[in-house]
Amino acid sequence: MAAGYVYPHYPARMAPQARDSAGACPHVPLVVVGAGPIGLAAAIDCAQHGLPVLLLDEDDTVSVGSRGLCYAQRSLEILDRLGAGEAVVRKGVTWNTGRVFHRQREIYRFELVPESGHLMPGMVNLQQYYLEQYLVERAQALPAISLCWKNEVVGIEPSAHGVRLQVQGPEGRYSVLADWVIAADGARSPLRKMLGLDAEGKVFNDRFLIADVSMHASFPAERWFWFDPPFHQGQSVLLHRQADEVWRIDFQLGADADPQLERQPERVIPRIRAMLDQQGYRDVGFDLEWVSVYTFQCRRMRHFRAGRVLFAGDAAHQVSPFGARGANSGLQDVDNLCWKLALVSKGLAPESLLDSYDAERAAAADENLAHSTRSTDFITPKNPVARRYREAALQLAARHGFARALVNSGRLSTASHLWNSPLNTPDAQSFDCLLRPGSPLEDAPMERDGHPDWLLRHVGGGFCLLLFTDRADSLRAQVESLRALGDGELAPRLLVLAEQPGRLAGVEVLHDVQHLAALRCDAQEGTVYLIRPDQHVAARWRRLDVAAVRAALARACGH
Fold first, then answer.
1. Can you give the CATH number for the domain in which 507 is found?
2. Are 397 and 406 in contact (CB under 8 A)?
3. Which of 78, 98, 118, 517 could form a disulfide with 444 if both were Cys (CB 3.0 to 4.6 A apart)?
4. Is 484 a member of any domain?
5. What is the pTM of this model?
6. What's CA 204's distance to the chain center, in Å?
7. 457-472 CB burial, b ≥16 within 10 A, e <16
């Protein structure tokens, strides 16, 4: 039991498909292995796309300890689309300010979201067990998901047409034949090992101590990072506030630290006491909730797709925790993968579309690995030259703004820009904005029928055409022309963003109340954006051209 939190234990059960198959090997369209945040998100996303999902997990509860902690704006937007965003923001601690200290001195601070006009905040801190609980509750509300606890995958046999899994369930062992498998079974990924695959990269020697601490202290809801503080000399410390008056503290220990010794309370408590005393909180008491010791890893699989097995989250790539690029990257994996898998499963796109998942998310993983490696090298310099460079950068940053870019306490997670994706249709006309094909669409405040609303809540799940206009009631000819695209699942839904309030029969109209969407898209009268199901821009034009839209749709679907 954590402060204010009682760990749920979910009832174990055999997969219903196995129970109903009368001893035969049941066939299912999709198995997701691992009910952590990434596996749960994948199951929910696929179910929302109309795929039946069998979700297997070897445990019967949520994760112990804070673990994944910081959820960036893009992840919150994805979680909102999956039905859990509001709960995370409501329970979590919102923060936008980071402060960096060198010894006893604050050398600078930064703000995450200088631009207004977004529903979701820049960053929310929330213990991973809360996020998993909210996702479990959402999954339980979707009839398409069979969530089976205490079901451990112990064998895997892939073929060209499916994947046979051996599962140890609460009532014995059984087999299941899946068309597709999403492996979200964590950094140690048993499925990856069973398939003889590996993650390649770098393992750092330095060890870090994580402590979740329950205390009533008036630290603000900010990210504080110390280089060489007086209470932990020669090392680094990170402090985050979480829900329920719980603080997450990371202490750098050095490469020679004994992990078994350092996680003992008699070693952890004096470190925390020294930090609080130095910060003026001598009278504040605290309790330890969870302690762990870890080493950094910056590695990824060479390919995230192995035939009909698709790897996501930590199973596919691991990064050091500074920068919050682990869970945030995994949620973007899910966002990228599930709509593609749904189209392929339904026969609406070629199987080769799934190769774009590997191409797009491997590129994003490489970017995360590069940022994470540079952060780790700065935080834990490996030789005297690197240490002197860090010392000079920290001293300069206290006096000169240009030097702050040299200080790397973790480059925080941002949305992936898929500018080199083969699914993009290049611009045929000139645009003066950064929302080019491959970019995630930015949110903006809207009004619908006179009520406040947000753009991203109307985009995602399927393809969407955004059409910008001064008045909605002047678009009857354009709407009529779009009928040539058909009315099937691949036909994009038309969403009109009007400068002035208006109505149009059979079409959803949003009033761009602050003109922000038009500004961010460099929109003129008649500008059109084609948005993918994961809210990324697929193509854009200055005028609606049905033939061009049809070609861009085909390209975005891998044809």
1. 3.40.30.10
2. yes
3. 517
4. yes
5. 0.95
6. 24
7. bbbbbbbbbbbbbeeb
